[in-house]
């Protein structure tokens, strides 16, 4: 007799992957206080394709308008996507506040978004869509849970960077800052009783394999992405304001 598979196994894999993800070089770079904080977020333009596509994932891929009334999983996905789809405009706000919104013509913008420096960013969108578009709700939920876990890692670090910036610029950063982290808990379902229900969902052997495959591929492409973002940051130094230079020198002196 074959053993019973439950979702908790997949959640445990996601948690393990999350801990590995948190130790990637990008996050060490973002936490390096010898580097000016705005430089540590200078990769933001490189993220545009995925972040703006994420709104479409929620509207057209993860969410299903007509589903069986007893599908608690799809109901939870729909509720989650209603909130998550609204985050993309925050990114546009932060690009402006960070001073990373240069005036350039439309053709150059297209060339950048679909250029060599952002090729992994685009692959994220295609791979996530490929894994989830025709997937059953339980696999979509696994994919979202993996995305939430990595989002929690990223915003836990970026919010600390923007906290430094806010002391220098007296400006608020909504996408990369604390307000976004507050809604990126790392889990799709907020209520503890719903999370318990999710963890105890029984999976067929095929569903288990599909879930593990989705988690592996999503973490793999996002891990590759962090190296693309880091390379972009190294290749695109930002021009710092005088207040940022003074603050950076002061912090460096303290560290020494």
The beta-strand count equals 2
From the alpha-carbon coordinates, what is the Rg to the nearest angstrom? Answer: 20 Å
Instruction: State the order of secondary-structure elements, H for helix, E for strand.
Output: EHHHHHHHHHHEHH
In total, the number of domains comes to 1
Percent of residues in helices comes to: 55-70%
Compact summary:
This protein is mainly α and about 260 residues long. It has helices at about 5-20, 25-30, 50-60, 70-85, 90-95, 105-115, 120-130, 135-170, 180-185, 190-200, 205-235, 240-255, and strands spanning about 5, 200-205.
Write up what this structure looks like.
With 256 residues, the chain is mainly α. Helix content is 68%, strand content 2%. The protein contains twelve helices and two strands, in the order βααααααααααβαα. The chain has one domain (5-18, 43-237): Heme oxygenase-like (Heme Oxygenase, Chain A). The model has no long low-confidence stretch (mean pLDDT 89). A two-stranded antiparallel sheet has the order 1-2. Helix 8 (137-169) runs parallel beside helix 11.
Key terms:
12 helices; single chain; globular; 256 residues; two-stranded antiparallel ribbon; mainly alpha; Heme Oxygenase, Chain A
């Amino acid at each position: 007799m074959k053993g019973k598979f439950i979702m908790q196994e997949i959640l445990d894999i996601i948690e393990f992957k999350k801990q590995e993800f948190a130790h990637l070089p990008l996050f060490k770079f973002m936490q390096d206080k010898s580097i000016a904080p705005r430089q540590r977020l200078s990769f933001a333009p490189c993220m545009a394709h995925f972040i703006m596509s994420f709104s479409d994932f929620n509207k057209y891929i993860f969410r299903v308008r007509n589903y069986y009334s007893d599908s608690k999983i799809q109901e939870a996905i729909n509720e989650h996507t209603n909130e998550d789809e609204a985050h993309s405009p925050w990114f546009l706000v932060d690009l402006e506040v960070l001073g990373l919104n240069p005036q350039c013509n439309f053709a150059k913008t297209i060339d950048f978004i679909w250029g060599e420096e952002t090729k992994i960013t685009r692959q994220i969108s295609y791979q996530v869509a490929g894994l989830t578009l025709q997937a059953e709700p339980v696999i979509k939920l696994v994919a979202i849970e993996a995305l939430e876990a990595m989002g929690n890692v990223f915003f836990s670090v970026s919010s600390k960077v923007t906290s430094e910036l806010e002391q220098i610029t007296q400006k608020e950063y909504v996408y990369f800052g604390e307000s976004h982290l507050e809604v990126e808990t790392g889990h799709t379902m907020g209520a503890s009783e719903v999370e318990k229900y999710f963890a105890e969902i029984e999976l067929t052997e095929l569903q288990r394999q599909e879930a593990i495959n989705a988690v592996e591929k999503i973490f793999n492409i996002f891990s590759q992405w962090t190296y693309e973002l880091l390379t972009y940051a190294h290749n695109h130094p930002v021009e710092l304001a005088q207040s940022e230079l003074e603050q950076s020198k002061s912090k460096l002196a303290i560290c020494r």
